[in-house]
Specification:
By secondary structure, the protein is an alpha/beta fold. It has 21 helices and 18 strands. Bound molecules: adenosine-5'-diphosphate.
């Protein structure tokens, strides 16, 4: 055990590290729709290396059943009450890469999509909340810290503290991690009462009411012992009205319990030295392979085979959050005045997809819009591009910029959330920095910075330095895991 942890534990009059149960709607590689799954999948492995036993409890989604059915072990089952309904809860156990994952089985709620949307989704996760709380005392593991993630599991602390009085669940410590504050789980209070039997007195601004709705995430912010989010900058930003989506009041009130821990990436999966999805390997000192990847990307995507032209890429969900309004505003200006290529891999809002498809027609051989989701192609895009554009309106953490840096693709980002915490802007006077950034959510500001980056591309020495520093940055999960371990100990 690290000495620091031993000292912290000593102050609390104990010797052992706390056991942790992560509660999450998704967990990679079993079920994944976004970065949340990666964090929940990777964090327990990294914590284990520090001596912290962390296990996961997650729904037994259809996608998991289809693939892992033969590997799970049935532990026990019971019936629980979801309002007036009696529902089956099966607890299955799966051990993956040394991490124990408890799967909550119920065919009525988890037999198709991970998120059903609207009311059906609320029912799915109200059920999950109840099932988790009822299952905890019967697991073959006694957690002290319950680590909830996002609105889907944010009601766990409130239900534990208000409906399990005198039971072991009431006395556990609860951490809530906000991965994206834009999703809060809002509904009419009648629905919450119907599903989770919440008493009327909790439907006030002091507890779970916000702007005339019951709000799951707000309930989590009120009742969790500590709240954290996925970067220090985002932790500060969500205390302001621009970013908080209405939760700035409660987050300011709980500022002393709010912190930010940046996520990491899986350095084994994203490794240009050994990646099986790219045609040539490379590392910091030997970049020949990167040039091969660029040529392969250009060929595969129908871009002109011009090694000397800078290639700017995006791999992203195509939504407002990711700054597509800025891209659509100045793409033509950029493409018609700069000698560059542009590669997009993404899916999302139809208006942005259509805009990019049309742009591909206008700039044949210079711009490729691959509308789709492809993990394999994404690796080639990271490896084969020179710059990685990520002009997000808000970005709780962002993994793509870290992956890009690991592959020597220089990020061009807006200074927000995790982008601000991971990308150090290039300083032409001191030669420091590993990327480019702009402050305001403004298309012309973005364009000016893209132009600066493209000018730098012409200078081999500057580019070499940028690539060197970008690839050198350590975005592994080990540092995040240490901070989480500290946070868990503080909570005891
Ligand atoms: P968010 O979770 O908000 O979408 P992140 O940057 O945290 O953004 O994580 C996005 C992850 O999803 C990255 O690993 C990125 O490579 C991947 N990704 C996004 N869109 C695609 C796509 N169309 N094809 C393949 N991978 C994608």
């Amino acid at each position: 055990m690290k000495r620091e942890f031993r000292d912290m534990l000593k102050e609390r009059g104990r010797e052992e590290l706390p056991q942790v149960l992560l509660v999450s709607a998704e967990c990679a590689p079993l079920s994944k729709t976004g970065g949340l799954a990666d964090v929940v999948g990777t964090l327990p492995k990294a914590l284990k290396k520090l001596g912290v036993e962390a296990r996961v409890i997650t729904p037994y989604h259809r996608v998991i059943k289809d693939k892992y059915f033969g590997q799970t072990e049935h532990m026990f089952y019971f019936y629980t009450e979801l309002g007036w309904r009696r529902e089956y809860v099966g607890i299955e156990k799966l051990i993956l890469d040394g991490v124990t994952i408890y799967l909550v089985d119920n065919e009525r709620f988890f037999n198709d999509r991970i998120y059903r949307g609207d009311r059906a989704e609320l029912e799915q996760y109200a059920f999950f909340t109840r099932a988790v709380l009822d299952a905890i005392p019967n697991l073959d593991f006694v957690p002290e810290v319950i680590h909830c993630n996002d609105w889907h599991t944010a009601m766990v602390p409130m239900i534990a503290r208000t409906q399990y009085r005198g039971c072991m669940q009431e006395g556990l410590r609860y951490l809530l991690t906000i991965h994206n504050i834009a999703y809060q789980g809002k509904c009419g209070f009648a629905q919450v009462q119907d599903l989770l039997s919440v008493e009327d007195k909790y439907y006030t601004p002091e507890f779970m009411e916000l702007h005339g709705c019951a709000n799951f995430l707000k309930a989590g912010c009120v009742f969790a012992d500590r709240i954290n989010t996925v970067s220090p900058s985002y932790a500060r930003e969500i205390m302001t009205p621009y970013y908080a989506e209405g939760l700035d009041g409660i987050l300011n009130a709980r500022a002393a319990q709010l912190s930010g821990i940046i996520n990491g990436i899986d350095k084994a999966v994203f490794n240009p030295h050994s990646d099986k999805s790219i045609p040539a390997h490379y590392d910091r000192g030997h970049l020949r392979g990167k040039a091969v990847c660029k040529a392969a990307l250009q060929e595969r995507m129908g871009l002109a085979q011009r090694p000397e032209v800078p290639l700017v890429a995006m791999v992203t969900r195509m939504t407002e959050q990711k700054g597509f309004d800025l891209v659509t505003a100045v793409l033509d200006e950029m493409m018609s005045h700069e000698d560059m290529q542009f590669m997009l891999l993404g899916t999302g809002d139809a208006r942005f997809e259509n805009f990019m498809r049309e742009a591909e027609g206008r700039y044949k051989g210079r711009l490729c819009a691959y509308i789709g989701y492809s993990e394999e192609l994404s690796h080639l895009v990271y490896a084969g591009s020179d710059f990685f554009l990520m002009p997000s309106r808000f970005e709780p953490c962002g993994l793509s910029q870290m992956i890009a840096m690991r592959y020597g693709s220089i990020p061009i980002v807006r200074e927000t959330g995790g982008l601000r915490d991971t990308v150090i802007p290039y300083n032409q006077f001191t030669g420091e920095g590993n990327g480019f950034s702009f402050a305001n959510f403004d298309a012309w500001e973005m364009l000016a910075v893209v132009r600066t980056a493209l000018r730098c591309y012409g200078n081999k020495e500057i580019m070499q330095g940028l690539i060197n520093r970008a690839m050198q940055a350590d975005f592994g999960f080990a540092l995040s895991a240490q901070e989480y371990a500290r946070l868990y100990i503080w909570m005891l």
